[in-house]
Design goal:
Oligomer: single chain
Shape: globular
Strand order of the largest sheet: 5-4-19-18-17-6
Number of domains: 3
CATH class of the largest domain: Alpha Beta
Radius of gyration: 25 Å
Number of strands: 29
Bound molecules: ligand MGD, molybdenum atom
Number of helices: 26
CATH architecture of the largest domain: 3-Layer(aba) Sandwich
Helix content: 25-40%
Distance between the termini: 52 Å
Length: about 750
């Protein structure tokens, strides 16, 4: 019997031949990620939450006590039963006094890979059995993209699973144009369990096939194939202007595919009137774009001609839409590739996220993996996920979302499980203020990170290694029996058990558990998934065989994929799910919403903050906060692998050599990044791989503000702007942020985060 476990960054074979279990990479993985290597040793780290704990003032004075002390005061550890009684009584109180619409259970976050012990699904199911909760919609990953794409092309679910596979790209693509690169670092991850890491081989395959590679953006080293890559530096958040100029060049020079536009798209004429300036008096020429992007007009013009003459794939990374007016680069790239007319042809068309996750470009078969049913939510109120602080600060106030106006609910109780808002949200100083609004904040967590420290009642949750589960991810082609590796640390319990314990106290245990234990659920969820796979002609073995073998691999059943090939072959038989059934270069629906910041066709808007703005005088550097190389978000930041990437315990901030020299900053110097919103410390690394005017500080260092509010950890969200991408999506706009940077006085090395203080009951 082979023993496996799985995480978002890979599958591991568990070896039990030494004193402690050891994790080896899955033998079928050609390019394993080192991120998870230390999981066993870390499992018992000092930072683990060992016992239920309650914030001191809350315990002594009850709900709503001294909310400004959240994150600043000690905890009291309690017995499980007492802590569960307190939490259940508080949930009951809020439901009775304020109704379920006063409970926020959006609980965004990545939690762990197993499909049953998936913390979000667990907390949602738990709250639904009680009548429901205020939910959040969309993701931080693709806030703007998820709203715009269904109007104009297809849902993100379809585009993510439908990307042209790497083999087809290598065989057919001649020119690969990447806005924002194809960062190998990000392809370590697939939500639910990356199985075989294929991006490195995919990129090398393009180089070997002689595909011409062009990388457009502020960062040079995010597209590495082993071969030649041409870098065109471009100011952050200005990709749309360059794409519009490419479109205008194709239009003006008659290089577009008129037949494609006529048969497969609607609304090109309306867009053309914007491109040629007849609509607004400004022609979107390469010269017009140069003033915005910094890309020489001749470079853009020549690239447009080359794109039209070659089999061309144009890719955008997801970061492009995690910005002010983030809908526009996604819409503009769809329009650009529609004009080129290669959508649905092998190796041509549009890529919406090669390099964002491992799964994109996979040829493995797709089938629905196991998922925990969440039940029905009796509350209709919701927020776009990144509007959490607005909701808490402005109850009752209106917001727009996807063409409608809604109101923020008045939240009294927050329940978070499996996410770290003090990692993922923008402008953490503002979030801290907003966090004072609810009477009570409950969380299940594994580690004493900032989210746990800012809660009132903290329940210690088990890790993946401490329980049985099933791993599976879209297009990864594997189902993994994730068998328990270690005993739980301290008194940690599974999220399922915690919600069973609370449900029993609240009278909903039968509905929540359906009388099943962990194994009962695993059998049921696996059976449902196997049946769905069977309907697609994919044979999954019986549960016993699966559990015994430890893994099911469908890798032998690969089929090359060409995105939107069916639509191209027969648009009448395989229409898109857009209102017209075609690609919408102009959307009557979006136009009808009447939004000033998202009209009926792709358009250029000045970002809220950017290098062309007046604020540049005070804060002359554009901060990019990209995904970290050495961890998944804030997870495992305390691992040796993540800590090895730091200097003196500080997160590195990359800065162009010119900007570093101008400020007297040398390699390894402690620096302070600051703007009107916040301040954080980091360690400088001058580099030639960034354009001047841009700095890059990855996300995920643990937020640790001192008494003055200066974040010692180096979390970029101490600085970012908390504003929706537009009135259409309200998506996360983290990549829109100006800062200044200066040498900081010598500071002692930043220590690894530690647990909060505990006190005995007063
Ligand atoms: N500035 C800036 N900010 C960003 C981004 C950016 O580009 N720039 N990117 C955004 C994006 S794309 C994302 S997806 C978010 C990610 O934000 P999150 O998904 O919230 O970040 P994680 O660190 O993965 O948080 C997962 C948490 O779940 C806990 N956890 C893990 N397993 C379990 C479990 O089984 N049970 C329980 N109860 N808890 C568990 C972990 O300890 C961890 O605290 O960040 C966003 N924030
Ligand atoms: N190792 C690791 N991998 C991950 C994650 C992780 O935490 N760690 N998180 C995963 C998650 S949840 C997500 S959503 C995906 C996100 O995937 P992405 O959003 O694509 O990832 P980023 O690293 O933020 O950005 C990709 C590149 O775009 C560049 N960029 C930023 N702004 C601009 C711009 O305005 N124009 C151009 N042209 N380029 C720009 C960035 O510098 C970076 O090099 O990554 C996933 N992969
Ligand atoms: Mo994400």
């Amino acid at each position: 019997m082979t023993h496996y476990t799985a995480s978002h960054w890979g599958i591991y074979r568990v070896r039990n031949d030494g004193a402690a279990p050891r994790l080896d990479p899955y033998e079928g993985d050609p390019d394993p990620s080192p991120i998870g290597a230390h999981q066993v040793a870390l499992n018992d780290a000092p930072l683990r939450i060992r016992r239920p704990a309650v914030r001191k003032s809350w315990l002594e004075q009850g709900p709503g006590a001294a909310p400004h002390l959240r994150g600043r005061e000690p905890f009291v550890e309690l017995e499980w039963d007492e802590a569960l009684d307190l939490a259940a009584a508080e949930i009951a109180r809020v439901r009775t006094a304020h109704g379920n619409e006063a409970i926020f259970g959006g609980s965004y976050g990545w939690s762990s890979a197993g499909r049953f012990h998936h913390a979000q699904s667990q907390v949602h199911r738990f709250l639904n059995m009680l009548g429901g909760y205020v939910r959040s919609v969309d993701t931080y990953s693709l806030g703007a993209g998820m709203v715009i794409l269904p109007h104009i092309l297809a849902s993100v679910r379809e585009t993510n699973a439908g990307h042209t596979s790497w083999d087809v790209l290598a065989a057919h693509t001649e020119l690969f144009v990447a806005f924002g690169g194809v960062p190998h670092k990000n392809t370590q991850i697939s939500s639910g369990g990356a199985a075989d890491h294929r991006a490195r081989a995919g990129l090398a395959g393009l180089a070997a096939a002689g595909v011409e590679m062009v990388n457009i953006g502020p960062v040079r080293d995010n597209l590495e194939t082993g071969g030649d890559v041409r870098w065109i530096p471009l100011r952050p958040n200005t990709d749309t202007a360059m794409m519009l100029a490419l479109c205008e060049t194709l239009r003006a020079e008659g290089l577009g595919d008129a037949d494609f536009l006529a048969r497969y798209t609607v609304g090109f004429d309306r867009f053309a009137a914007y491109l040629d300036g007849s609509a607004d008096g400004v022609r979107k020429t390469p010269e017009w774009a140069e003033a915005i992007t910094g890309v020489p007009a001749e470079t853009t013009r020549a690239l447009a001609r080359r794109m039209a003459a070659r089999r061309t794939m144009v890719n955008v990374t997801w970061s492009l839409q995690r910005a002010a007016h983030g809908e526009q680069p996604f819409w503009a790239v769809v329009a650009l590739t529609a004009i080129l007319g290669q959508i649905g042809l092998p190796g041509g068309g549009v890529g919406l996220g090669y390099g964002a996750m491992n799964a994109l470009g996979s040829a493995h078969p797709s089938f629905p993996g196991p998922t925990l049913p969440q039940g029905r939510n009796g509350v209709s109120a919701f927020i776009p996920v990144a509007r959490i602080a607005d909701m808490l600060l402005k109850p009752g106030e209106p917001f727009t979302y996807n063409g409608k106006t809604h109101r923020y609910p008045d939240i009294r109780l927050v329940y978070w499980a499996g996410g770290n808002p003090f990692h993922h949200h923008q402008d953490l100083g503002r979030l801290r203020k907003a966090w004072e609004a609810p009477d009570t904040i409950l969380t299940n967590e594994q580690v004493w990170n900032a989210a746990a420290r800012h809660a009132d009642i903290v329940f210690p949750a088990t890790t993946t290694l401490e329980r049985d589960d099933i791993g599976a991810a879209v297009r990864e082609g594997h189902v993994i029996a994730m068998k328990k590796v270690l005993e739980p640390v301290g008194e940690a319990r599974d999220d399922y058990r915690i919600f069973c314990d609370l449900s029993r106290r609240l009278g909903t245990l039968d509905a929540f558990s359906e009388g099943l234990d962990e194994m009962g659920w695993l059998r049921r969820l696996y059976g449902e998934s196997a049946a769905a796979a069977g309907a697609l002609g994919l044979d999954l073995p019986a549960f016993e065989t699966f559990w015994q073998d430890g893994i099911v691999s469908l890798a032998g059943q690969d089929k090359p994929v060409t995105m939107l090939a069916d639509f191209r072959t027969a648009p009448e038989d395989a229409p898109l799910k857009t209102p017209s059934g075609k690609i919408e270069i102009f959307s009557e629906t979006i136009d009808g919403f009447g939004l000033e910041d998202c009209p009926g066709h792709p358009a250029w808007f000045e970002p809220f903050e950017w290098l062309g703005a007046e604020a540049v005088a005070a804060y002359p550097l554009h901060l990019l906060s990209d995904q970290p190389v050495r961890r998944l978000h804030s997870q495992l930041d305390h691992s040796p692998h993540s800590q090895d990437g730091k200097i003196g315990g500080r997160e590195p901030v990359y800065i162009s050599e010119a900007d570093a020299a101008a400020r007297g900053i040398a390699h390894g110097d402690t620096v302070e990044l600051f703007n009107d919103r916040g301040r954080c410390l980091a360690a400088a690394i001058p580099t030639a791989d960034l354009m001047p005017g841009v700095v890059r500080l990855a996300t995920g260092a643990w937020y640790a503000p001192d008494e003055t509010g200066q974040d010692q950890g180096g979390n970029p969200n101490a600085l970012t702007l908390d504003r929706g991408a537009s009135g259409l999506s309200q998506g996360c706009a983290a990549q829109t942020c100006l800062v200044e940077i200066r040498r900081a006085p010598d500071a002692p090395p930043h220590p690894l985060a530690t647990p909060p203080p505990f006190v005995a009951r007063g």
